[in-house]
Amino acid sequence: MFTRNPANEPAPIEPRKPAGPPSGVGGVSSPAASRPSPLRSGSSEGGKSIISNDLKIIGQGLKIISRGTLQVDGEVEGDVAGAEVIIGEQGRVTGTVAAERVIVRGRTSGVIRAMTVALQASARVEGDIHHMSLAIEQGAEFDGRCRRPASAAELQVDLEGNG
After folding, report:
1. Residue 64's closest CA among 106, 94, 104, 31?
2. Does 133 have pLDDT greater than 70?
């Protein structure tokens, strides 16, 4: 009744090659040139990483780094960094949160360092916020100090994990 016809078989998937001429010195392409483009605008690289609400990550000196968006719906005892960090309503971070943009819907205890920080109505933040732009919705709880540095360079995040 059913037969296999090789002409209807899908073609094997080939790895994507970067478009355009090779870049870099001597025609050698750099690693950045061969990476795929970001999956969503606003993130420097990569897509979205999620720490699910059934996950608890604990570590002494722990640092979680994402080059894209990092959403924390679970619990992290350590530092988190990314191009964008979202603390979900069930999320909890005890440690430093550093990113270009931070959105808090859950709980944080520690320093937040970002160009743009948004505390939504369900947010509960204990600790200082270092920012260039800060938005706090009605209903959010914030216990700490907020500071706007003289230079945005003070808020730059190291997403390479150096230091």
Report:
1. 94
2. yes
Whole-number percent of the chain with pLDDT over 90: 59
Confidence band for 41, pLDDT divided at 50, 70 and 90: very low
Give the C-alpha separation, 12 to 120, whole Å: 46
Residue-level length of the chain: 163
Vertex 66: Cα angle to 17 and 121 (nearest 5): 130
β-sheet bridge partners, residue 117: 102, 134
Write out the DSSP string of 62-115.
Answer: EEEEEEEEEEE-SEEEEEEEEEEEEE-TT-EEES-EEEEEEEESSEEES-EEEE
Give the pTM: 0.70
Tokens of 150: 């003289």
Residues 68 and 39: beta-carbon distance below 8 Å: yes
How confident is the prediction for the chain on average, in pLDDT?
80
